[in-house]
């Protein structure tokens, strides 16, 4: 037995309505106004001088702010060197990500050194996730699984720990009372 086929008008509605809704959403998305930027209220003299509404493409009458004063050349450091000093763990994580595909053993060495220096920092779960992936690349699956289980136990709400657990196929037990 064949299933009944929809009639022509019903088929047109089944196909046309979702397409029309999608087109309307795209139209609204493309024509939406940009959110208003916070500006200082003009003084009464400025508001009376220019009462016509401005178009979006017109430039503002307010001049741009002057650039900040430059520091002496000897005291200025490039931004790429200044950022890692503020967050040394970010530099370690970047090196670990870079070494993951080419040298997974280097990822383990970097993680060991970072664990000694930084301990259980806020980004420790992210380091752990990279360690799990490096262990898998080195075919040390059992060790990777054990580490991922430990990671999800220590950091149950961290997205990196959840990602490492999912990567290893671990489904953590829900917290709270059991049934």
Helix/sheet category: mainly alpha
Shape: elongated
| Total DSSP helices | 8
Query: Taking Cα atoms only, what radius of gyration do you get, to the nearest Å?
Result: 29 Å
Keywords:
mainly alpha; 8 helices; 179 residues
Write the topology of this structure.
Elements: H1 8-30, H2 44-49, H3 79-86, H4 88-102, H5 104-118, H6 124-137, H7 141-154, H8 159-167
Describe this entry's structure for a reader.
The protein is mostly helical and 179 residues long. The chain is built from eight helices and no strands. The chain has helices at 8-30, 44-49, 79-86, 88-102, 104-118, 124-137, 141-154, 159-167. Helix 7 (141-154) runs antiparallel to helix 8 (159-167). It is elongated and about 70 Å long. 15% of the residues are buried.
Quick gist of this model?
The chain is mostly helical. About 60% of the residues lie in helices and about 0% in strands.
């Amino acid at each position: 037995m064949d299933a009944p086929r929809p009639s022509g008008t019903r088929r047109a509605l089944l196909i046309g309505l979702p397409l029309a809704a999608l087109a309307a959403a795209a139209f609204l998305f493309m024509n939406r106004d940009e959110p208003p930027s916070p500006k200082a209220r003009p003084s009464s003299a400025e508001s009376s001088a220019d009462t016509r509404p401005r178009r979006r493409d017109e430039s503002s009458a307010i001049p741009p702010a002057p650039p900040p004063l430059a520091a002496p050349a000897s005291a200025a450091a490039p931004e790429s060197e200044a950022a890692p000093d503020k967050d040394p763990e970010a530099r370690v994580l970047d090196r670990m990500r870079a070494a993951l595909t080419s040298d997974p053993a280097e990822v383990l060495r970097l993680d060991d050194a970072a664990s000694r220096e930084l301990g259980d920092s806020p980004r420790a779960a992210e380091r752990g996730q990279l360690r799990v992936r490096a262990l898998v690349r080195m075919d040390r699956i059992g060790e990777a699984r054990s580490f991922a289980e430990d990671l999800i136990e220590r950091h149950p709400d961290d997205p990196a720990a959840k990602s490492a657990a999912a990567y290893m196929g671990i489904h953590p037990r829900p917290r709270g009372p059991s049934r």
